[in-house]
Write a structure and sequence with these properties.
The chain is mainly alpha-helical and about 625 residues long. The protein is built from 23 helices and five strands. A five-stranded mixed β-sheet has the order 1-2-3-5-4, with helices on one face. Strand 2 and strand 3 form a beta hairpin. Helix 3 runs parallel beside helix 5, helix 5 runs antiparallel to helix 6 and helix 21 packs parallel to helix 22. The chain is elongated, with a radius of gyration of 36 Å.
């Protein structure tokens, strides 16, 4: 107990120390943020870096921290006003020269990533963002770290790499999913939904859309409202719900127009153009397309330009304005870097605007000032609550940890028992098979051989009797070998399966192929399970498939073993696999050795069964 109290006192001391030492700088940082907002609002005619820097440091105590923050907001000012070269120079200088690497580098690398992204230097942008992530990790600042992942997701969206975009977007949202009051929550959620839409994760996207729509009335996040409405419209469009998509995209357009978010406005107009083209309302599509084209003059964005030209060519062609249609079709074809089959990829270029730095210049700056003031008040209140809160957290964490531990223990014990049961059943079956095989081979087969020799001494025995006796003898040997495959232990899986196939090929419709020329590096139990599984599947095909051809293959591909059993028979309903004693047992045994069991079949279409196993 004394140790816990000591730890708690150290935490409290560190908390209060940080609060006392940062109080002065927090006040100065608020002044710098307000000065930056006034720079954008008033748009002074001062252009030199020194003059702008002095304006940012007005009424601020000159310290290394305040100078560093002023440099950041100066670079940011140039970035927002699209003086990218100046912004990049200041950013690079501060990354090289700043005095507090772990803290300052993070925000400057983040801004550097945004600058390179605006210049479509995506590879440098991603590297810069990842360096910012690394710096925030050193600070244990997980919220800012995961915010950067959203920036990276935006780049991959622009490149059309939806899997990578989803990876980073989901990584970002996983940190914020329980922080619905965070200013950027809906923005992060909107990006994730767009990724899910383009990866055909429609069920997950719908769940997230419903969540976003339920929060729209309680948020002031403008770009979040735009993204949620846009992603809901896109989801309906992709699912063919054209009329349901229109109200959402119109809402997105209305908000974008109200707050002068031109790139989001163009995105919405392009989607409306595509929707009305699909509805064959070509005159309406023309209006939205032309509006998007007029708004595009503010940006140099070839992705959006291609989308607009493509949509307008369709609308003009269907309103008998063939000359204009031809012009826009040529224009769309000239933009060869754009994939015309991925319309959303073209529209998403605009999302490379940084959520932390751009979108609504004055709104974002004022939001930061408000957030900083709120943080200052929250910090003072937290000082009074931290002792009780920390103790409560310890109690809750202890309870949760104990609950998780017990649940994991129960689950592991259940899995262990199930594995032991399957192993025990398999071993018992092998023992019984071996006993029965021995009895057949040494008992019945020997007796049949003796009977044959005895009958051969009598001349009056018919030839048919000998044939029946030979057939019974061969059947006994085949059953004995199937029950206990002696070749499996002597020559390995491939030779044993070869013999088994040959031994059961009584109708000449059973074929075997392999590219394996050496003994496979498999443990005896693994070999036995694979052999019994193949045997069970072959017997099923022979008995039930009514097939004219059955093919067994064992193929080695690099470090993977692929086994297939295929037939051209009557097929089956694969939904019964888990409830089938035979196939269900085979599936469980394959999973026991970390293999993958897959079946592809339908009535009257034959059956294909695959077993995949890593060789290690």
């Amino acid at each position: 107990m004394n140790i816990k109290i000591l730890i708690l006192l150290v935490v409290i001391f560190s908390f209060f120390t940080r609060g006392i030492t940062q109080t002065t700088f927090e006040k100065d940082s608020l002044k710098i943020i307000n000065n930056a907002a006034q720079l954008l609002t008033n748009n002074p005619k001062v252009e030199s870096e020194d003059s702008l820097n002095n304006l940012l440091l007005k009424d601020v105590a000159i310290t290394r921290q305040s100078k560093d923050l002023a440099q950041f907001y100066l670079a940011r000012h140039y970035y927002i006003t699209q003086k990218l070269e100046k912004a990049l120079n200041i950013t690079n200088q501060n990354i090289e020269d700043n005095y507090e690497v772990n803290y300052s580098d993070a925000k400057f690398y983040n801004l550097k990533g945004a600058i390179h992204t605006s210049r479509k230097e995506y590879d440098i942008g991603i590297r810069s963002f990842l360096k910012a992530v690394n710096a925030y990790q050193k600070q244990n600042n997980e919220l800012r770290e995961h915010t950067i992942y959203n920036n990276i997701a935006n780049i991959y969206l622009a490149l059309g790499d939806y899997e990578q975009a989803y990876h980073y977007s989901e990584k970002c949202f996983s940190k914020f999913k329980n922080r619905k009051d965070h200013p950027n929550y809906l923005g992060f959620l909107g990006i994730l939904i767009i990724c899910e839409n383009n990866l055909d994760l429609m069920k997950e996207a719908k769940q997230h859309i419903d969540l976003g729509l339920s929060l729209l009335d309680s948020t002031n996040n403008i770009q979040g409202k735009v993204l949620i409405n846009f992603s809901a419209a896109e989801w309906n469009f992709l699912n063919g719900n054209l009329h349901q998509a229109i109200p959402f995209v119109r809402k997105s357009l209305t908000i974008s127009e109200k707050y002068r978010l031109k790139q989001f406005q163009i995105m919405s107009e392009i989607l409306l153009m595509d929707i009305h083209n699909e509805l064959k309302e070509y005159s309406i599509a023309l209006n939205y397309g032309k509006n998007a084209e007029r708004n595009l003059k503010y940006f140099n964005n070839s992705s959006m330009e291609h989308a607009i030209a493509d949509g307008l060519s369709v609308a003009y062609a269907n309103t008998d304005q063939h000359r204009s249609a031809y012009t826009y079709l040529n224009k769309a074809d000239s933009l060869k870097t754009i994939d015309r089959n991925e319309k959303n990829k073209r529209n998403i270029d605009s999302l490379l605007v940084q959520f932390e730095y751009l979108t609504n210049k004055n709104t974002i700056l004022s939001q930061e000032a408000t957030i900083a003031k709120q943080n200052s008040k929250i910090q003072q209140r937290t000082n009074l609550l931290i002792v009780g809160g920390f103790s409560l957290v310890l109690v809750v964490l202890s309870g949760v940890s104990l609950f998780i531990y017990n649940r994991q223990k129960i689950r592991l014990e259940r899995n262990r028992r199930e594995v032991e049961l399957v192993k025990s059943v398999s071993e018992t079956e092998e023992i019984e098979r071996s006993k029965i095989s021995s009895m057949l081979h040494d008992g019945l087969a020997a007796e049949l051989t003796a009977l044959k020799l005895e009958l051969e001494m009598h001349q009056d025995i018919s030839k048919k009797t000998f044939e029946m006796l030979n057939k019974a003898h061969q059947m006994t040997r085949r059953i004995s070998h199937n029950l206990s495959p002696f070749m499996l232990s002597e020559k390995g899986l491939v030779e044993a399966v070869t013999y088994m196939v040959h031994n059961n090929n009584v109708n000449n419709n059973l074929h075997f192929y392999t590219n394996v020329k050496q003994v496979l590096p498999l443990k005896p139990k693994v070999e036995t399970i694979l052999y019994r599984s193949i045997q069970e599947l072959v017997q099923n095909a022979l008995k039930h498939a009514q097939a004219t051809e059955i093919t067994v293959q064992i193929m080695k591909n690099n470090n993977e073993l692929v086994i297939s059993i295929e037939d051209d028979g009557i097929g089956m309903d694969t939904s019964i696999v888990n409830n089938s004693i035979g196939l269900g047992s085979v599936k469980k045994r394959i999973e026991l050795i970390n293999g993958v069991f897959d079946i592809d079949s339908s009535p009257n279409q034959g059956t294909q069964i695959f077993i995949n196993l890593k060789l290690n």
